[in-house]
Amino acid sequence: MRSLVAAVCLCTLLLISCVDEKTPVPIEQTAAPVQLNRFGKYGAVYEYDEYRINPRFSPDEGCSTFFHINQKLHILTQRGVKYGTLSLPYQQGVLMSADIKVIDKTGDEQQIDPLPIKKKYKRSRKIIIPRVEPGCQILIRLTFRDESPLFNFEHFFNKDIPVINARFLLAGDADLKYIHKTYGNVTGSKIRSGADSGFEASCSNLLPVQGFGFPEADIHYSMWFNKQSPRVVARLKRLNFRHMKLFKAHGWEELAKVTRESFMSPSIFSSISRIEALTSDVIKNAKTEFEKADRILAHVQNNYTLESIGNLAGFTMNTDRVLNKKRGNQIEICVILKQMLIAAGFSPRVYATRPNADGGFDPEFPSWFNLVYDFVVVKIDGKDHVGYFYIPGLQLGEYPFYLAGEKALDIDTGTIVDMPPAPFDNAVYSSTVHLPLDSPDHLGDWQFNYGNHLGVLLRSDMVQQSKVTLKERFKRVLDNYDEQLELVSAALENGNRGEAIEVKVGFKYHDFETRHTKRTHFSLKPFFKKYLTDFEKYTRQSYTNPVDFTIRETVVIDRNGYPEVKVNFASQNIYNSLFDAEFEQVIDENTITLKRRLTLKKANLAPGDIHAFKDSIHELNRISESHIIASR
Amino acid sequence: MRKLTIHIVLLAIILTSSACVQHTETRLSQIGDKLTDLPSSWQDIPVVLIDSKTDLEFEIRSSGNRLIKTRTDWYRVNRRNPNYMENVERYEVNSYEKLVEIKARAYYPDNSSWTLQPQDIRRRKIPLSNLVIHRFDIPGYDPGVLIMVQTRHRIFHPEFTGMFLFGDDHPALSRTIALSYPVEADLKFGIENGQDLTINESTITQNGTHTHKYHSKMVTDRWPRSKSPFPEQYYSALHVSFPPSGSRSYTWQELGNHYLDLSKQAFALSEPIKLLGKQIQNTASGDIVDHAFDTIVKKIRYQGDWDGRYAFFPRDASTILQHGYGDCKEISTILKATLASNHIPSSLALVSTRNYFQPIEAYPHLDGFNHTILAQKLGNAPYRFLDGTWSWAHAGNSYYHLIGRTAFVLEKDRSVLVTIAPDKDFKNEITTRSTIFQNPSDGLWKCHGRIDLVGKPALRFYSQLNWRDTLDNDAFAKTFLLNNLGVDASAITLVELSSQRVMIDYISLFQESYLSLGNGGFKLSVPNLYKQEIHTGLTDKRGPVQLSRFRQTDQWEFSFPASLSEPDTFDMPFARCTWNTETESVKRTYRQNSIVIPSDDFQLKKWNASHKALVKARAWNQEGK
Fold it and tell me: What is the pLDDT of residue B87?
């Protein structure tokens, strides 16, 4: 009876596994009829885009991995011919075969000679396809072989142009063991093909991603991906790389342990006493614990050059070498910072995480991909402060907005933790314009105040780019707002470590005043108006705003000589899920004060979603115009 | 005997090295002395050149002339951040030179020093280019460190070099350029001193060699060249016309012949090219040159492969056709070949694009050219230029972005420098018409407008639209109107769209221009003047400013009899604006002539300040609402 049950169970299991695994259908056969016209504006479209990875292991020959790329590309218009040069998403090793056909618009098919393609790939790492013209189709099959050990990888499905069908397959023989996870609207299933098995992940109708930039501070940051960007991540298990702990680590605790023991332990030959002497010099005369830690951070930011991390396989830490050369990769510099903090009596920890823009940190899927940035966290008066050494000018506790709210791996304990709270989770830009009504040339003063994240970023930008003068920078800012503003002067105030940055700009307003008999009309365009009109471009793109961004404008007008004034709008507010806008006017005996505040909220909108806000945007544009009628 | 030889060699080595040490110490001491001249305003600049010297040694050889260029720079680090000189990069342009030697030393405040070892230099060739980068790091990079970097280039095509700037990325306390050449050489050379530096010149003749030395002090750093459309007219430089062979500088004509000789294989007519030429002839319905241009632009995409000699000379036309891609000179070459197969003569023309250094006519050399186009001459008519890399243009307007640039037209025995000028069909016009009305439903003033871009602005619109992959036509048109004319359109209709003409109908809110004074009126500030033609970024400029021939006509129509209060007269030698009023409309006509003018010219400054005031015109309602 017991054996019968066992047999039934076994049959059931086999049946389940048979049902669970399917034979992959060639992607060419899965494609539905394509309506290409709707993609005309992109110039080109991938009908399908398939990546297949076949890792092979042999105790004698080691590892070799075959990467297969299978694509069909339609060149729709002249603007699409540039996609005849393929940029591949990652380095795949040696190009073994290139089977490329170009079908012109008359249906004539040309097989492309693979030899020149291979030669050029060897020199340039690009696949440059000849004779690409509007109206042609390109069928591309490439096979690469890589002999470096494959242990984990991540594949993003989005490309520069739309992809109608995208698929990723991992398949290998019985030795292949893996775990994987898909994100976004990617569907996955197990596959079996002959003796090979693995999984496939697919998605369809992918449009390119568009970032969002704030020209305000002349600092542009774009968000290309987020946690839900269509992608697949996989990690291979059961490999036999005896000497490579890096590849054997699975689970957060193991990843942290390998990082800690293999990469972050100072070599026994390193001189800790040298770090202690240096630290003692750096923190000399520091009055508070915070000041001590911040001085150490500033020392590291200003004195060590960050190098690319390179291949970690043969990496060994040597703090003496870093101290001597004053350069090192992020792990090395992180260790120097940590050791200096220890020498100063702190108990720092090292965290590692990945920003949302790169796909974010996924606590549920331990992998090296999640450990992009290492940094130090130090507790002072019961509060955790991040020591972010990558950007000179950031004070202890400050770090870029794109890491705020993320989870991180505590390398010292192997546990998942929250990022310490940022001193601010929004960007603030405020300005005060001072305009006397009776000024003959309409000269005004404009004080910009860059706070929170914008202050942090502008401050570090100013430190690093000493060649762009303040005047040039703010001339561009004024031009961005209104052609009628002419820069007269610009001066920087504050901007020291930890301070908000203030910039005082003198300008001349060329379209300010209209006189008519006894009355005069003054008009003031809102400086933030550009944002709202630029939203138009997101009608066909997704819109991502990674951080609450607040713009405050205060216009103080001296009424000198104008006892009677009338302002065209009443205090009014608009609130919705995209932005909050508040307007207020205060008229007193000597001045008229106009206050406008606009907060663009964190958002991730799909293409076209912006339409829902069209009326609000137009209303905002209309009411934010300020007109003053004044009479003597 | 052998022992004696060894001793002599050893003695020679000792004497040489002690001389070297002594020389270095003397030099170091001289550099140290110069530090006292460092002005306080330069002390916060991250890196300053204390002394910089370029030695040019020209050699006449029967196998082809050579130039040995040795540059020795002494830097002082004032500030570590940004670390400009910590990672030193030196380039080798392998199609005309070999970087034969790099020396570097660092001297530290504690009197220790570091010397670069050959194995510390990382050499990397940039894929698909003629550039090799030599990189090394300066250890102990800290304030107070003195860095000496010396490079020695052996230039085997000296005709491809010829401009030696006084300025550098870092400001220089002392800058010297020395030119040596055999006394029998007859070279054209001279200083173009756009920066008005004080340059001391000295000449000596010794051992059959003339040496001219030019020395200047306190040379400011070189501004990013993008600030000036004609950097060669601003930055001081020594220009030398080195002949590739013989002892006499070439004329432009000889230089043209030389270039054509080196690239003549590229222009040979092959069967595939003849076939293509025939296809073009058979399918052309109008001008065969226009049709050939369209065909080549569609067939050959821009993709550069500047490996080795192909940085300067094109591949042959049939190879380009077979590839289906090429760079500027290759697209021009295949266009020339297809025209030649139809018995239409044309020539390649070397040119330098806007903001890049151009050669000076007095000193023929090939330094500075970075682009190739095609020139076509019919009888005595001026040259017609075609730029096949301007994918969104047609044959007639593809050269617009090069107007005002100097082209070196390459023709056997007739090569010549020509300034690219607008042809008789050149158009650069914008016409706008705005009908202002009050919306009955909400009482707001609105504008129903039409904007007609003709010629250059249409090409700009059309090209930008096509380069932007991710913006649809309407969204792009809205952004373009807002950024260039100040029009904030809420609805758009593209009536006509081509590289020659773009016509856009739009609706926008006009309420912000409404003036509730008297019977009411409007500010005539929208549409504004076209930003691309009037926005010069004057405060950033070094060197001349170029204005194009441009005309903009704006008409505002109202539903009431309008009277006009206009700004002060705007009438300058190169720009004029007039206003006309009819019963219910106001018309503004702005005309601008083509001119190249120094950025500090008072008329230019006056124009720059006053064109902003043109928007101060007001149209008033004479009847009342």
Answer: 92
pLDDT tens digits, A11-46: 444 444 444 678 888 888 876 677 888 888 788 999
Q: Give me the half-sphere count of Cα atoms (radius 13 Å) on the Cβ side of residue B413.
A: 0
Domains and CATH numbers, chain A: 20-238 (2.60.40.3140), 247-418 (3.10.620.30), 426-631 (no CATH)
- ipTM for the predicted complex comes to 0.85
pLDDT score at B6: 55
Of B358, B390, B419, the residue at which a domain comes to its end is: B419
Q: Are residues B94 and B236 in the same domain?
A: yes
Task: Say what the alpha-carbon torsion angle B552, B555, B556, B560 is, to the nearest 10 degrees.
Answer: 160
Give the best-scoring range by mean pLDDT among A172-186, A244-258, A425-439.
A172-186
Instruction: Give the DSSP letter of residue A33.
Output: P
Cβ contact B596:B551 at 8 Å: no
User: Contacts from A577-583 at CB under 8 Å and sequence distance 24+?
Assistant: A577/A601, A577/A603, A578/A603, A578/A605, A578/A610, A578/A613, A578/A616, A579/A613, A579/A616, A579/A620, A581/A620, A581/A624, A583/A623, A583/A624
**Which CATH number is B197's domain given?**
2.60.40.3140
Which tens digit of pLDDT belongs to each residue from B255-289? Answer: 999 999 998 888 888 999 999 999 999 887 888 99
Same domain, B279 and B409: yes
Tell me B480's DSSP state. H
B21 and B52 housed in the same domain = no
Q: Is the dihedral of CA B615, B618, B619, B624 positive or negative?
A: positive
Same domain membership, residue B432 and residue B383:
no
Does residue B275 form part of some domain? yes
- Is there a contact between B467 and A392 if contact means CB atoms under 8 Å apart? no
Same domain, B378 and B273: yes
What values do phi and psi take at A520, rounded to 5?
-130, 140
B246 domain residue, yes or no? no
Would the CB atoms of B523 and A625 count as touching at under 8 Å? Answer: no
Beta bridge partners of residue B21, listed in sequence order: none
**Which residues constitute the domain of residue B284?**
252-419
Give chain B's domain count.
4
Listed residue (A244, A234, A411, A242) closest to A312, CA to CA: A244
- Chain B residue with Cα closest to A524: B512
Q: Does A326 touch chain B (CB under 8 A)?
A: yes
A287 to chain B, closest Cα gap in Å:
26
Question: Among B221, B241, B261, which residue terminates a domain?
Answer: B241
Confirm if B400 and B294 have CB atoms less than 8 A apart: no
Cβ neighbours of B82 in A, within 8 Å: 463-466
